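Morning, I've got a small favour to ask if you have a moment. It would help a lot if you went through both lines with me. Thanks so much in advance, here it is.

***
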Amino acid sequence: MGWSSSYVQQIAERFTIGAEIIGEAIRKWRKDEEWIMNGYWLNELSAIDKNRTFSVAGSPKHDFYATDFSWGRPEILESVSIDSDNGVSMSCNRSRDSYGDLEIGLCLPKNRMNAFAAIFNHGLSFL
């Protein structure tokens, strides 16, 4: 697979643009009390194409590994799952082993995960 560094850069730029758009929408919606309290968000949620779902879980701001419900701290966090052939699920958490690092989880169908792994590994070769 011959992925050029410019192609990998385009993917990174598109991901960044998507994240900015999502962040902007969240900031707008969380200030719109009527949209939340009257359930208008449910209408938008039900209109989503279930075959193109992208879910995100976790928080780099909350230290899940420090959580202890009296049976000990977690050894590992895995919160990714998909239930369709086109779904994508990601998680992002603080690292268990080192301060300032993140753990990223990704769940894709096998063929897409193999393609992602090839692109990701190729991108790492430029670091």
